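Regression test case RT-17, inverse folding.

Input:
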């Protein structure tokens, strides 16, 4: 499972240890220039999604933290700060690998309290990023989920999904299996710039075709749609035509959102690669994480006729401010007391 690569020097190792428990070792390999992999033993594998989230699932598994895909817009970048690593280059180059994740997951799923709710993979960092080709964590994870009767949902940019299609077909005979590919950029040069570590768009479309031919109803996440870069009617029409031709059945679409961590990194990229767009992006995202509501409404109005033209079912990205507010309100009502206690309360401050 592990590489026999060169160990990181003591000074770099000390830096990598900051905020990181269960570290076994840190390694580099010539195949991944500039990337350090920190192999850790995890105490848990299942992550509960906060009640106030707008996501349509309650549990996730993340075998990796950080991602060599290096997408400049990745919303998960800020999670690296919990490890005392930065949300920019460290997120791309300091990748945490939970080498025992399959074993820990199997133990958690065997508990009598486990309700066999759907588990989502790929909601934070990609389980089929390039390192998976060497660590091979996903087959064990999929086996643990299927053996326990737990439904599986996968979202990935990685073409390595094709390796596991036979296993996923077998799993689908026992549990629901949902497969989604993230394909946001259909201009090759732009894709190399904004997602430098990802497989090509053509390779991902070929993976959609392989999954569809294997009997799966594949969803494509056409997101983030980036203002002034990938959002023209012609660009959207070409993207949907190619997605439909690849055999996808469903689309999830949504405009770029930039939370802290991702925002700073993305805006630096805009300033460097597309200085003509700096004013517009700072107007949209300078004081907000989401594109303006009017822009998102216009985007939906323009894309829906194109979806119908190409025979694709669709839904909008659920991670939007309106949905998040509704989810937070529901969570607050669920946790509210049944009746008001009108007795005086001590001051807290």
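Golden output:
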């Amino acid at each position: 499972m592990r590489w026999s690569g060169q160990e990181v020097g003591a000074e770099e190792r000390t830096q990598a240890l900051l905020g990181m428990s269960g570290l076994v070792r840190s390694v580099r390999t010539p195949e991944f220039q500039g990337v350090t992999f920190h192999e850790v033993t995890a105490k848990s594998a299942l992550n509960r999604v906060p009640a106030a989230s707008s996501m349509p699932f309650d549990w996730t598994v993340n075998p990796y933290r950080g991602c060599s895909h290096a997408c400049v817009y990745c919303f998960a970048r800020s999670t690296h700060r919990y490890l005392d690593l930065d949300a920019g280059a460290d997120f791309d180059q300091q990748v945490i690998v939970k080498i025992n994740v399959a074993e820990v997951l199997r133990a958690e799923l065997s508990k009598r309290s486990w309700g066999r709710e759907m588990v989502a993979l790929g909601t934070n960092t990609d389980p089929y990023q390039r390192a998976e080709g060497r660590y091979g964590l996903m087959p064990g994870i999929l086996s643990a989920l299927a053996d326990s009767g737990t439904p599986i949902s996968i979202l990935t940019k990685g073409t390595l999904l094709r390796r596991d299609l036979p296993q996923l077909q077998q799993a689908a005979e026992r549990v629901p299996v949902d497969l989604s590919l993230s394909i946001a950029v259909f201009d090759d040069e732009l894709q190399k710039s904004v997602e430098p570590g990802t497989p090509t768009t053509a390779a991902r479309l070929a993976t959609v075709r392989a999954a569809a031919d294997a009997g799966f109803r594949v969803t494509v996440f056409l997101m983030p749609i980036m203002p002034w870069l990938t959002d023209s009617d012609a660009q959207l029409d070409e993207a949907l035509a190619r997605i439909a031709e690849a055999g996808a059945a469903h689309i999830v679409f949504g405009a770029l959102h930039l939370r802290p961590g991702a925002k700073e990194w993305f805006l630096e990229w805009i300033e460097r690669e597309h200085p003509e767009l700096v004013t517009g992006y700072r107007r949209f995202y300078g004081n907000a994480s989401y594109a303006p509501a009017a822009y998102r409404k216009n985007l939906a109005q323009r894309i829906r006729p194109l979806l119908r033209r190409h025979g694709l079912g669709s839904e909008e990205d659920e991670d939007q401010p309106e949905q998040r507010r509704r989810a937070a309100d529901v969570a607050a009502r669920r946790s509210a007391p049944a009746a008001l206690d009108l007795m005086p309360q001590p001051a807290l401050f």
